[in-house]
Design brief:
The structure is a single chain. The protein is an alpha+beta fold. The chain has 4 helices and 13 strands. The strands form 3 sheets. The chain has an 8-stranded antiparallel barrel with strand order 1-2-3-6-7-11-12-13. A 3-stranded antiparallel beta sheet has the order 9-8-10. Strands 4-5 form a two-stranded antiparallel sheet.
Length: about 280
Amino acid sequence: MTNDIEFTKFSSIFCFAFLFSLCARGQAPAVRNALKKVEYDANLGSVLDAPRSPKQRSAAKTKEFSTGLFLYADGVGGNIRLALNDNHYGSWRLGFRSIQHEKEVKQRKGPEFREYGLLRPYVFGKINCLYELQLGYDIDVFELPLIVEGASVLTFSFSGGAVVRAEKPVYLLLLVEDSSQNRHAISASYFGSNSENYLNNSNIIGADRWMKGVSESKIHPGFYFEPALAIMLSGGGRYVTRCLVGVNFSYSIKPVQILALHRGKNFLTTFMVGISFGLKHTE
């Protein structure tokens, strides 16, 4: 188990390094385009195309739409950002992610069980699939130009809002005996009358269809908070790319449980890295 946790941490660090390298590769053309815009006043020797002041930026109207993919320490996800405001310090965000337990280990039965059904991989002891929908608002606390305006900008932002968690029961194909001691396969969840067989690995054939149990999902509202550090590349044009790293904190009013042998939790904390692409227009 320790090796799995270390591998997850190593994968997160490797992915962030890879995303950072993508940003670095796209920075050179952006710098060249930005430097072409710089003009010097012969009398004052100052830069006329200098970055706008915070007061000037707050008066600008910005429209932005972007979508991104994110890797969490406990799963994967994505989001959509939409800004239709009178300044470019904030935007609405709709995000989705799937959450896994750090102790999850997938298994698959051998061909001797094939006569009972499809041998789909399963996680022993997993009783719920957990998903999270986040709707919130992003606020950029500060912007620090790394080179010149239009090239790349370092931002620190906070995101917060409402969260909805969904617990979907996991159904497995189990081997049971009838009154004639004949063995056959049934589909069952942990919350039914076959909970004992559910936790008996020798009686498990494999996972049932993912759609099984969707109508039985439980919804738990809550809230989330996410501070993040991002490098934003705009290239002086309408296209914008962000590479982000941060921490996601989320809370639900009722505890959520993924594995039967581990207690449910209200509060979840996870490290995340991601990249997003979009369009931006500033008036």
